[in-house]
Design a protein that fits this description.
Radius of gyration of chain B: 28 Å
Radius of gyration of chain A: 25 Å
Shape of chain B: flat
Shape of chain A: flat
CATH architecture of one domain in chain B: Orthogonal Bundle
Order of helices and strands of chain B: HHHHHHHHHHHHH
CATH architecture of the largest domain in chain A: Orthogonal Bundle
Number of helices of chain A: 12
Strand content of chain B: under 5%
CATH topology of the largest domain in chain A: MetI-like fold
Oligomer: heterotrimer
Structural class of chain B: mainly alpha
Strand content of chain A: under 5%
Largest interface: A-B, 102 and 102 residues
CATH class of one domain in chain B: Mainly Alpha
CATH superfamily of the largest domain in chain A: MetI-like
Helix content of chain B: over 70%
CATH topology of one domain in chain B: MetI-like fold
Chains: A mainly alpha, B mainly alpha, C alpha/beta
Largest sheet of chain B: none
Largest sheet of chain A: none
Distance between the termini of chain B: 57 Å
Chain lengths: ~325, ~325, ~260
């Protein structure tokens, strides 16, 4: 890196001779530093303005809140947001559960199984999944996938119905959490795959060759060298995926038949709802106090995703330190 | 060779056996895992192909110059009419304005991080840019609404609000990709410029940015592709409208993704059997056609971005 | 345990590029064969063809035969994974698995074939292998510490212990001491002298003195120019090679006139 001082005093002799250019340099350095600082300001502003607009609802008396049709009768914001947080977590973790094994498989396929020449193209194909707008996933999930998976869900509820998760009878149409989970899983596949693939590709050749030279098959090499090396990377990739799934709105909004309960039944309609989808659903028709209450739930979502993302980034950063020391 | 095999009939397996009779269990596990891993990849292709295929099949018929040229003004029921002109106008204006906000801020932040940034502030900016990429889009929408609501009162809905929401989502993407490109510029180029007495800021503009230009353009295009399909933040900041609005600063505005959602939400039209000009699935047809347009735009942006990156990549090496 | 390796008319390719041409040599059991030559002459490439590690790289292939105990390692019915088990390899840079302990590293190869190895068998094998690699005394009290906690020279001996734990016929060493300090290098060289009682050893080295010190036979590889394949120039008893080589190029290289 260059360490040439730009705004330090005393300035180099050459710059004294051209004070105008020096001023331009200072302005430029100031501008770019300002832009960097602005990022921090914006992030603080997001929290600040959300809190500001949510405040009326947070401080409003219960009887005033309970006048909003979709707030529970006890007029408590917490009773309202509880099932929403629960639904958000159910949707996100279900998606994660479905996506992570597949993503690891894809990442391994691209990094260690596919022919080298094809690998880049295949990676690009997976990235295309990320390029498709979420509203199109919603459309596809609602009109194509839901009818398609209904018989599968039905079969699932008939054979595994004794598990509360798969309690039947499966709803028709399949506007249920399970369908949402599948669509969300597809949506977060690319980010998990991309990060895992990068980590797997970074596996030191030394360790791969050590395994092979001991007489390991390719899969044994993956288990001995690649997976242990990439474990923390996969964890942070999964957390990034979790962050995405937590905040996804349209796919949930367009597929799920909502309900505000603490139910784990994935195949029944009208049981769960996520924070994001609920905001999009209620916002257009909400009264000013209703908007304020919705913003309060948005604040909760912001805090949750922020925590998940910061944790993921922290894991990544720690991993970078670790591999740098080696 | 025969003599060798004859000699080693004792307890340890012969070399031939050791080399040609692999452990079948291990071999099988290896084969199975190869199959599983390949299957994982194929599984991921299914939704992609199904989605693109259905959009093509269901959207192609309705997609016509007429569909692109008219709005939804005066269209109701199962009428065989209506288009996405107003939504295209809205998407272009809002996304363009968002880019106008994000690109300078993002690029300058990247320059700060690569050329100036040291110490705590730089580390904080790097960290929070990463964190910012994880902000849910609906929260970005709420933020933009809250920001404008403070100044314009509740119920505020116009184009610029949506643009601000999108720029919150777009800026970190621009920062990340530009930063990566700026770091690729070899230090020798900078030092060569300094050696000629060119001040740092001019070196950045004339040497660094020019060298990284193609990569930065690629990054910006990918960032645009990412936000152009955003629905949720626009749903709550722009609302929905059936007619064309060119003014970013007044009145509701339609955008393509919101249009898709709106049509989907309206669902099937109840047609009487004697109604000849009533199409029951008209709303879904329009949704698919608009989705197809959206997919085409996004894929074109992606493709173009990659092509630019490829065309200019060798030049960067010299 | 140790086997003879007989290489006949071996050509090695990376894609369409011929990296090594027309090598025939006999590698004697229970002896150390040193491969020397200037950088890029193909000696490491040749070494990697002996246990089929070469073909791990995309596009790499081989023509010719490599016989071990009369079996062609490149025969149709031969499994490359089994070849690598019979012919162990030690690399230039020590590469213990960072997530495994010292004991686990030693057992890494053994566990592939025998998952349910009993605890006492495992302990015996770890001790045997570490003793065999002259490392036991130094690490016996910290077998559960990570392999990466050792010094470079100890790590390399750990890798040797890992390689001999699977009881191979042959041990290939690709410049095993080039990343180590002089004292660790000496320890490795002493170890090689002991190991040759049990194994066929082939070692690639850049260091003439090392070749002269540890090997019984020496093969000199050379390259005519860039883009040309490396060739085996001559091979003889080490003493003869270093005193009266029959080819001028060998003498030039050994006396330090090039390379």
């Amino acid at each position: 890196m260059t360490t040439e001082p730009t705004t330090s005093t005393p300035p180099p002799a050459r710059e004294v001779a051209r004070p105008q250019r020096d001023r331009a340099g200072r302005v430029f350095a100031g501008l770019s530093t300002g832009a960097g600082a602005l990022i921090l300001v914006v992030l603080a502003a997001v929290a600040g303005f959300l809190l500001l607009e949510a405040w009326p609802a947070i401080t409003a008396p219960a009887e005033q809140l309970s006048r909003i049709s979709w707030i529970p009768a006890d007029g408590s914001l917490l009773t309202y947001v509880g099932p929403l947080i629960f639904g958000t977590l159910v949707a996100a973790f279900l998606a994660l559960l479905l996506a992570v094994p597949v993503a690891i498989g894809i990442a391994l396929f691209i990094s260690h199984y596919a022919p080298r020449r094809l690998a880049n193209a295949l990676g690009y194909v997976v990235d295309l999944l990320a390029a498709i707008p979420s509203v199109v996933y919603g459309l596809w999930g609602g009109l194509v996938l839901a009818p398609l998976v209904q018989p599968v869900w039905q079969w699932l509820s008939e054979t595994l119905g004794w598990i509360p998760l798969f309690q039947g009878p499966a709803a028709t149409p399949a506007r249920v959490m399970m369908t949402v989970g599948v669509v969300l899983a597809v949506m977060i596949l690319p980010i998990i795959t991309a990060v895992s693939r990068e980590v797997f590709l970074q596996t030191p050749r030394l360790h791969e060759e050590a395994a092979l030279a001991l007489g390991a098959t390719r899969w044994e090499m993956v288990r001995m060298a690649v997976l242990p090396f990439g474990r923390s990377g996969v964890i942070s990739a999964a957390m990034l995926g979790l962050g995405r799934a937590l905040g996804e709105t349209m796919a949930v909004l367009m597929i799920l038949s909502p309900g505000l309960t603490y139910s784990l039944a994935l195949l029944l309609a009208g049981r769960q709802q996520t924070i994001a989808a609920n905001i999009a659903l209620q916002f257009p028709e909400a009264s000013p106090l209703g908007v304020s209450a919705l913003i309060a739930t948005g604040l909760a979502l912001f805090v949750i995703t922020l925590a998940v993302n910061m944790l993921a980034r922290w894991v990544v950063a720690r991993r970078a330190d670790f591999s740098g020391a080696n | 060779m025969t003599t060798t095999t004859g000699r080693t009939t004792a307890a340890p397996p012969s070399t031939r056996d050791a080399l040609t009779r692999p452990d079948t269990r291990r071999k099988l596990v290896d084969r199975v895992m190869r199959g599983v891993v390949t299957l994982a990849f194929l599984v991921a292709l299914v939704p992609l192909l199904s989605l693109v295929w259905t959009a093509l099949v269901n959207g192609f018929d309705r997609l016509s110059p007429y569909f692109l040229a008219v709005s939804m003004r005066g269209v109701f029921g199962g009428m065989d009419a209506g288009g996405i002109h107003h939504a295209i106008v809205g998407t272009l204006l809002v996304t363009g304005f968002a880019a106008l906000i994000s690109v300078p801020i993002g690029l300058l932040t990247a320059i700060y991080l690569v050329e100036y940034g040291t110490g705590k502030l730089a580390r904080a900016v790097t960290f929070f840019v990463d964190v910012m990429t994880g902000i849910p889009s609906i929260v970005a929408g709420l933020f933009a609404y809250a920001l404008f609501a403070v100044f314009f009162g509740p119920g505020v809905r116009f184009g610029a609000v949506g643009a601000v929401a999108l720029s919150v989502l777009m800026t970190p993407v621009v920062v990340r990709s530009s930063e990566e490109m700026l770091r690729l510029v070899p230090n020798e180029l900078r030092e060569a410029a300094y050696a000629l007495g060119v001040p740092k800021w001019l070196t950045i503009i004339k040497v660094v940015l020019r060298t990284a230009a193609a990569g930065i353009v690629t990054g910006v295009m990918l960032a645009v592709a990412r936000v152009i399909g955003e629905t949720a933040p626009l749903l709550i900041t722009l609302g929905v409208i059936d007619s064309i609005n060119y003014n970013l600063f007044e009145g509701r505005m339609m955008t393509l993704p919101v249009y898709v959602y709106r049509q989907y939400q309206q669902g099937l039209v109840p047609c009487r059997p004697d109604q000849l000009d009533c199409i029951a699935t008209i709303n879904y047809d329009r949704a698919w056609a608009a989705a197809l347009v959206l997919i085409i735009i996004v894929l074109l942006l992606n493709l173009l971005a990659r092509l630019i990156a490829r065309w200019f990549a060798p030049a960067r090496g010299h | 345990m140790a086997q003879r390796i007989d290489v006949k008319d071996l050509d090695v390719y990376y894609g369409s590029f011929k990296a090594v041409a027309d090598v025939s040599m006999m590698i004697e059991p229970r002896s150390v064969t040193a491969l020397i030559g200037p950088s890029g002459c193909g000696k490491s490439t040749f070494l990697r063809t002996l246990n089929r590690m070469h073909e791990v790289l995309p596009g790499a292939r081989v023509e010719g035969t490599v016989l071990m105990d009369g079996v062609d390692l490149y025969g149709n019915d031969v499994d490359p994974v089994a070849v690598r088990r019979q012919i162990g390899m030690v690399f230039q840079r020590p590469n213990p698995f960072p997530t495994m302990s010292i004991a686990e590293n030693v057992l890494a190869g053994v566990r592939l074939n025998n998952r349910r190895i009993s605890k006492s068998d495992a302990e015996t094998l770890v001790e045997q292998s570490l003793v065999g690699a002259n490392l036991w005394k130094e690490v016996k009290d910290r077998l559960d510490r990570p392999g990466s906690s050792l010094s470079g020279g100890q790590q390399q001996r750990l890798c040797i212990a890992r390689a001999i734990a699977v009881k191979p016929q042959v041990l290939l060493m690709d410049e095993p001491a080039s990343a180590l300090d002089p004292i660790s290098t000496l320890a490795i060289e002493d170890l090689i002298a002991e190991l040759k009682n049990d194994y066929t050893i082939v070692i690639v080295t850049h260091n003439m003195q090392q070749a002269a010190r540890v090997s019984d036979r020496t093969a000199f590889f050379n390259i005519a120019g860039t883009g040309e394949p490396g060739r085996l120039i001559e091979m003889d008893d080490t003493r003869t090679m270093f005193s009266t080589p029959s080819v001028q190029a060998t003498e030039d290289y050994i006396s330090g006139r090039f390379g």
